[in-house]
């Protein structure tokens, strides 16, 4: 039993070290193509970022399967961390309200564009702000390995011109495959 636990702990530690080293290298493959590290915006005013954001589109993921009307509310806490409340309706607008509460914190104090978000005490995910409107009317959140992607807006809809501009930058600058995006139903 002790040997199995030591092997399990060794495996977990190896996974954490390997993930960290791969993150330091910072490169991602898309198919056979080696991509440059994902770039973030140069600065985020955390106070202006707080409030409600509506999801316009996202990459499919298991934790939002069946979600409609997705939205996130960010609130600055006294300790400088951010309270995160993600909400959606399950399956339809009349479906059961699903929610997840978490915390976020800045890991790049120079830009405030790289954050970690945790919904479970031990696990934290990367939350990188890669596109942001000057007036904070929309934001695009990515992941350094391009596994996740969200387009968020202060309103439930987005002008087509703004959306098309985001898609163009996601493809040309950030090398995301925008064909994977699914539009989020908003009431």
Kindly list the characteristics that best describe this protein:
single chain, 187 residues, alpha+beta, Lipocalin, 2 domains, eight-stranded antiparallel barrel, two-stranded antiparallel sheet
Concise structural overview:
The chain has helices at 2-25, 46-49, 160-172, and strands spanning 28-30, 33-35, 51-58, 67-76, 82-90, 97-106, 114-118, 125-132, 138-142, 149-153, 182-183.
What features would you describe in this structure?
With 187 residues, the protein is an alpha+beta fold. It has two domains: 2-35; 46-183, Lipocalin. Helix content is 22%, strand content 36%. The protein contains three helices and eleven strands, in the order αββαββββββββαβ. The chain has helices at 2-25, 46-49, 160-172, and strands spanning 28-30, 33-35, 51-58, 67-76, 82-90, 97-106, 114-118, 125-132, 138-142, 149-153, 182-183. An eight-stranded antiparallel beta barrel has the order 3-4-5-6-7-8-9-10. A two-stranded antiparallel sheet has the order 1-2. The longest helix has 24 residues, at 2-25. The N and C termini lie far apart (54 Å). Residues 1-27 have low confidence and may be disordered.
């Amino acid at each position: 039993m002790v040997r199995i636990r030591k092997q399990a702990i060794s495996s977990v530690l190896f996974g954490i070290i390997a993930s960290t080293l791969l993150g330091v290298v910072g490169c991602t493959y898309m198919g056979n193509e080696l991509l440059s590290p994902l770039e973030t915006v140069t600065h985020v005013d955390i106070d202006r970022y707080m409030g409600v954001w509506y999801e316009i589109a996202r990459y499919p993921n298991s934790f939002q399967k069946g979600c409609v009307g997705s939205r996130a509310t960010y609130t600055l806490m006294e300790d400088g961390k951010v309270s995160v409340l993600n909400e959606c309706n399950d399956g339809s607008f009349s479906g059961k309200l699903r929610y997840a509460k978490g915390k976020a914190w800045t890991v790049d104090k120079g830009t405030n564009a790289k954050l970690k978000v945790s919904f479970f005490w031990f696990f934290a995910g990367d939350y990188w702000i890669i596109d942001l409107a000057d007036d904070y009317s929309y934001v695009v959140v990515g992941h350094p390995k391009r596994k996740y992607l969200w387009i968020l807006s202060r309103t439930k809809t987005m002008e087509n011109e703004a959306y098309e501009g985001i898609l163009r930058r996601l493809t040309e600058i950030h090398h995301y495959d925008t064909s994977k995006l699914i539009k989020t139903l908003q009431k």
